[in-house]
Recover the amino acids of this structure.
């Protein structure tokens, strides 16, 4: 069910961007686009998504190929959740700015937490440990904050400490930081290829 929701959400966002960026004039007539005037001539102004060109990955042996394939599969599974986390965190933060009292903020956070639990608990509990660790890193990549910092900001230091303690029991940490140019370079490479439509 969550996969269907994610697909519908992505499709809706893409459709919205498409509709707002250009208007179809009818069969054989083309699209209405923005324009600019250059030396008296009207030129179409079309914004294209930036594409990062990266060389193909060179594998040393068959084990690297298998490891890479597994990593691609795991990233494809958890990356949408990290992107959703980023969006939800932004929306929650914007709404919290409009709430004046601590009491109302706590009620709002509890309500949003319940919604998130209802929507994602089943999917997230089915993640493997390595997928969970990867998700924690990707949340840092997408939001610019570690999972520990996000929990601390929304629920307080004590809750962050409790969740961190549980993560440590399972051999993980909520303080994972994403290092695109360091140890997570291969992950970043794969994400760029996914976003470019190469994987």
């Amino acid at each position: 069910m969550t996969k269907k929701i994610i697909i519908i959400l992505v499709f809706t966002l893409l459709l919205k961007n498409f509709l707002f960026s250009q208007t179809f004039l009818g069969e054989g007539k083309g699209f209405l686009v923005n324009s600019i005037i250059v030396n008296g001539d009207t030129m179409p102004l079309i914004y294209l998504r930036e594409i990062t060109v990266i060389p193909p990955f060179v594998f040393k042996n068959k084990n690297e190929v298998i490891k890479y394939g597994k990593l691609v599969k795991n990233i494809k599974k958890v990356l949408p959740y990290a992107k959703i986390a980023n969006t939800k965190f932004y929306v929650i933060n914007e709404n919290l700015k409009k709430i004046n009292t601590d009491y109302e903020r706590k009620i709002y956070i509890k309500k949003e937490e319940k919604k998130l639990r209802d929507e994602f608990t089943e999917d997230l509990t089915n993640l493997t440990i390595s997928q969970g660790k990867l998700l924690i890193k990707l949340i840092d990549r997408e939001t610019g904050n570690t999972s520990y910092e996000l929990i601390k900001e929304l629920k307080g230091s004590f809750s962050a400490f409790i969740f961190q303690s549980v993560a440590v029991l399972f051999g993980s940490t909520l303080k994972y930081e994403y290092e695109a140019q360091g140890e997570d370079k291969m992950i970043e490479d794969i994400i760029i290829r996914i976003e470019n439509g190469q994987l």
The CA atoms of residues 78 and 127 lie 9 Å apart.
